[in-house]
């Protein structure tokens, strides 16, 4: 097998020069939308199959059946194969043929045995691995097709594309208006990544606390990512109310950022109180302006909530978080005594529907339950922190099945990128 692979590579190199000048006519025109010239595709196919010719459609179908991990390896055979397997239309067709889902998980600093990020299928098999460059790198989050990495030693942040290797370094300085405030910051900033559908631009909204005399205030900045060094933070006015810094209280769907108000979050999670106020603040990444507030779902507690929590052994502090389910905004709340998933049906009317209610055998201390994906059969991929596994919840049987082991990862999400993409 080794000698055959070497011969294949030699044959590709030997015939590549002739391929630039000799045009081999096609027996039949293919209907497949290829950006690579068809004569070169046929020649590459002829080399790969011992000099004989296969119809272009046959080569296309054979390659579409192969997993992305193997196709990435085949790119190094020769330039013809690289052009063939890097074509944008082929990458899109392959993604449609292999819809996943795929899980992306990242490691904390000095963990992972030299690995920074793994992309896996739902059985836990690794299909893509990104090696660690610096032992002090820590994966903070994964959104869209990018990974947010913090270098703990330098304090610098960057976004990494695990498929292409492209790196976007975040500016190390502050917006001009905030330069004089940079010495009184409290804690780490929060970075929220989104993509503008119309332009494809990545934008990052940054939120950090500033200590002003005896008060804490939040500062907001935004920047547009690019592969160069000319990105700059731009100051944005605060929305008038502080936003929650807890886990899963920030979310982007399309170009809209959703943020939970800090005050309501505290009352609901710590004091079992609900107020008729707007719960969610919105920010438009395209216009870079604050949008309308959204009234939250009709969360309620039983009359004797404290006694109920004691009887059920429920944690005193509750969860109130945001999730993206099927492209819709969802609010996760509980246990009270169930974990309820509310889906926003009409943003203008503030209409919510309780789509799911999960019941657990035991709760103990509060561990976040975060839904990641609704599968085609209605089951839900859930990350429940205290289990060490990604789980699949079946609402028909109220049962959980362990899927991917997550014990040593610092962040996990569903991967939405394309592993065959070379577009930087």
UniProtKB/TrEMBL annotation:
Residue ranges annotated for the F-box domain, each copy included:
54-94
Protein source organism: Urochloa decumbens
What is this protein's name?
A: F-box domain-containing protein
Which Pfam families is this protein grouped with?
F-box, FBA_3
